[in-house]
Amino acid sequence: MVGTLKQTVYRQSDMNRRKKDIPSPAPSAAPARNHPRTPANLDLFPYEASARPVAGLAVDYEDGHRVRRHRHRRAQLLYAISGVMVVETEAGIWVVPPTRGVWVPAWVAHGIRMSGEPRMRTVFVEPGAAAHLPTQCCVLSISPLLRELMAAATEVPLDWQPGTRDGRLMMLLLDELRQEPVLPLHLPQPAEPRLARICRAIVRHPERQDGVADWALELGVDPKTVQRLFLRHTGMTFGRWRQQARLLAAMERLARGERVLDVALDLGYESPSAFAAMFRKALGEPPSAFAARGAASA
């Protein structure tokens, strides 16, 4: 089944190239130095078909750009120098601000939403290239060393040779992935119908103040049932899930350059200080610092 899907992915890639009358790039071609690709000229086939276990790619996106749900034969680590990426899968939503990355295992279908003109740097990793790699989607901390390795990897030819400087750089990048702690920038998306209804409503309108009792009344169940459903299907309480949804929404809006005051009030917080306290507790820095750092790196 996997082999059939693999052939389908590559056959579709070849068909798309023929439709656009664009010649297939040679797998050994290196990305242009200091010239990241754009969605208009992006072809991932060489990065997935490379004979080497790791390949780096740089792509710059505009604010609001959406990448439709798709999957890769290889695992992928997504990282943005600036801006915020929101990665959605059937299992949940992962938000990727600067200093963070999201790991997407091979064959996991995912879509991406861009906020604040992300400058994405990503690496594709052959399944089985290292035993320590995560087996599920997760957010990783991007250390200064890993950040520089990923940036350098985008300038390494796809046919890099083991034992050379390029080869040692790529293998160090692969080894460095084991050092990064998993971070809780994830919003689980439950499949349970009643819970999914609540979660969709909160994601669309995170400012809603409806509590457990309000949702229980709307669903015709006991408030304790709502709490049990959240714990069973998301691993979080209702209050914790709603706070996480608001945090991720805030990160997107701050990445687009919106004012901290406006974001805080629009998301239903009584004061900017209450919003700042929540933000600092979750990310270790105030929202003003997060917004300033994103603007400085843009």
Care to describe what's here?
By secondary structure, the protein is an alpha+beta fold. The chain folds into two domains: 2-183, Jelly Rolls (Sandwich); 190-297, Arc Repressor Mutant, subunit A (Orthogonal Bundle), CATH 1.10.10. It has helices at residues 2-20, 45-49, 144-153, 165-176, 193-204, 212-219, 223-234, 238-255, 260-266, 272-283, 287-297; strands at 54-60, 66-70, 75-80, 84-88, 92-96, 100-104, 110-115, 119-125, 138-141, 182-183, 186-188. The strands form two sheets. It has a six-stranded antiparallel sheet with strand order 1-8-3-6-9-10, covered by helices on one side. It has a five-stranded antiparallel sheet with strand order 2-7-4-5-11, covered by helices on one side. Mean pLDDT is 83; it is low at 1-34.
Please outline the helices and strands.
Layout: H1 2-20, H2 45-49, E1 54-60, E2 66-70, E3 75-80, E4 84-88, E5 92-96, E6 100-104, E7 110-115, E8 119-125, E9 138-141, H3 144-153, H4 165-176, E10 182-183, E11 186-188, H5 193-204, H6 212-219, H7 223-234, H8 238-255, H9 260-266, H10 272-283, H11 287-297
Antiparallel strand pairs: 1-8, 2-7, 3-6, 3-8, 4-5, 4-7, 5-11, 6-9, 9-10
Helix pairs in contact: 3-4, 6-7, 9-10
